[in-house]
Design brief:
By secondary structure, the protein is of the alpha/beta class. It is built from six helices and five strands. Helix 2 crosses helix 3 and helix 4 runs parallel beside helix 5.
Amino acid sequence: MSRVGAKRIAIASDHAGFELKSHLIALLESQGYHVEDYGTHSTEATDYPHLCAAAARAVRDAKADVGIVLGGSGQGEQIAANKVRGIRAALCNDLWLAEMARSHNDANVLSMGGRVVSNDLAGQIVKKFLETPFEGGRHARRVGQLSEIEAEEAARRES
């Protein structure tokens, strides 16, 4: 599914990403997006894995078109989201990475670090991520290979 034209966004953060998450929710809602907030709801220290997995599951279950997960660096949040089968979360703390994540990897969850990017840059990154189409072609073959690896690993765990 293309993220271009996405209107439903699942978002989550830990305490370090809370302020950036609040900024992005206001920005996205002002642009007509429906944003579902999976927490956290304060700057009180909290663990991110279950929050980011919840946002990723919303994308997997088609309750959202795209997900955004935020933390201090965005690294752990990306890893947590990528534990959900079918999710391709990309850590994008600049515009070029956001473009590549979408155009080459068909990423469906964006991760960023609230201690790395400013509110202004984060807004630009989200815009780039949402507006960049997946190129398909040779990249579709590679994304398919990623899905095959994921299925193989799931089958190994079940046996």
